[in-house]
Amino acid sequence: MTRMARLELPNGTHELPILSGSIGPDVIDIRRLYGEADVFTYDPGFTSTASCASAITYIDGDAGTLLYRGYPIEQLAEHSSFMEVAYLLTEGELPTQEELDRFVYTITRHTMVHEQLMNFYRGFRRDAHPMAIMCGVVGALSAFYHDSTDIEDPKQRMIASHRLIAKMPTIAAMAYKYSVGQPFVYPDNSLSYTGNFLRMTFAVPAEPYVVDPVIERALDRIFTLHADHEQNASTSTVRLASSSGANPFACIAAGIACLWGPAHGGANEAALNMLREIGRPERIPHYIARAKDKNDPFRLMGFGHRVYKNYDPRAKVMMATAKEVLDKLNVQDPIFDVARELERIALSDEYFIEKKLYPNVDFYSGIILSAIGFPTSMFTALFALARTVGWVAQWNEMIGDPEQKIGRPRQLYVGSPRRDYVPIDQR
Ligand code: SDX
User: Which atom of ligand 1 approaches the CA of 264 most closely?
Assistant: First the structure.
């Protein structure tokens, strides 16, 4: 028996079905609302709107819960690997050893990019932001692969998905190499996914490069923490772009563009820059005051979240990883102390408590990435590298959803009613 929501409007009472998922809030199915009641719902920013049915990731913002295909992020960060999580998110189940080996073999053999793609880098200035390069080069992949863009064919969709997951590290590493004027380093298929990325980024032809297993494990865990996050802004961008049947590589480039924003994936770069600007714990109260000042656009980057009104579970894992990496590298980075003190003060401040502003995934990640040796400008590129797994999983789910159709929101029109054209000599 379908439960119904009753909507009382001036033009009558309308009954709307209530749909339930496996866990989490019910939804009111408003698909018939405009046709029956001649009204739209109004929800800028989609704070109360479910855009789709999905089985990939579940977030409970009040409880601080994050599940990938039902598995808690804390358990996956501790026991799994980014490649296993990539399989889980794209295929829906944890793999057997044989399935995982086959998946890793497939991804490993898609890590090289077409030699022509290198010419795209040479079109950029050396100081181009890596995210500008990622937008351009990933979008350019749509010009290279015509054998995996029949999106109605699940096999071709999976080839395109594997190509994207496999090539993002190569493309990101090449963006870094280009920015520092060093030669590109080809993939080495004898290394792990994350080890290969570290080598392509930091190796130079002049000497051998040995992957540090502690750094490899920490970065692999960071990729896992960033892999997917329900219908966030960049994932919704990929879904909306893909809903028109557009080329998958171009749609992922659209997701990269959205992720770049400082309110979204760009926050890790902004958070580290903020910590550096604060510089010393005694300067924290000044910045807390600025964050609370309604007339000051300044916000504490790395704090707050649209969904988490409790601690972002990823931030807890990230903080522990930051300590592990700094200890291993014997890095005495004062901004880690600034971060811990900022977190302590913010979490005891009435404003942040009342607005439920906790550290999010971006608060500590920059400290780790900086300690490993990545420049701040590469932080969001690494976020995009990891989130490509979630984007392709969500893309496949949407294209395979019989209910999916081109996304086309409506509006509340507040402009001028109809009026006639006025010739210029009469204005
Ligand atoms: C990511 O959606 C996702 O899942 C994203 C992500 C993912 O994995 O894909 O989790 C990754 O994007 C994490 C968020 C990274 N962004 C930042 O750290 C930037 C700083 N944070 C803010 O910009 C903000 O918290 C947002 C954008 C993250 C969320 O903003 P909301 O939900 O739209 O909330 P809001 O802007 O309406 O803020 C609510 C109140 C406001 O005050 P009032 O208008 O109610 O008086 O809290 C205040 C805000 O002014 N506020 C902050 C603040 N964040 C919100 N005040 C100071 N510092 C902050 N960081």
Answer: 12
Please give the single-letter amino acid code of residue 221.
Answer: R
Answer yes or no: 14 catalytic. Answer: no
Q: Is 304 a pocket residue for ligand 1 (Cβ < 6 Å)?
A: yes
Phi, psi of 81 (to 5 degrees): -135, 165
Question: In this model, does residue 147 exceed pLDDT 70?
Answer: no
Q: What is the mean pLDDT of the chain?
A: 94
Strand partners, 59: 66
Question: Which long-range CB contacts under 8 A does 5-10 form with residues at least 24 apart?
Answer: 7/33, 7/37, 9/37, 9/39
pLDDT band of residue 134 (cuts 50, 70, 90) is very high
Alpha-carbon distance of 264 to 226, in angstroms, equals 12
pLDDT at 148: 63
Ligand 1 in reach of 357 Cβ (< 6 A): yes
| Nearest ligand 1 atom to alpha carbon 355 | 47
Q: Which range (42-46, 77-81, 235-239, 340-344) has the least confidence?
A: 340-344
> What's the predicted TM-score (pTM) here?
0.93
Residue with CA at minimum distance from ligand 1 atom 42: 355
Would you call 305 a catalytic residue per the annotation?
yes
N-term to C-term CA, the chain? 62
Give, using CA atoms, the residue closest to atom 54 of ligand 1: 304
Phi first, then psi, for residue 158 (nearest 5°) are -70, -35
Q: What is the pLDDT of residues 98-112, one digit of tens each?
A: 999 999 999 999 999
Average pLDDT of the segment spanning 350-369? 89
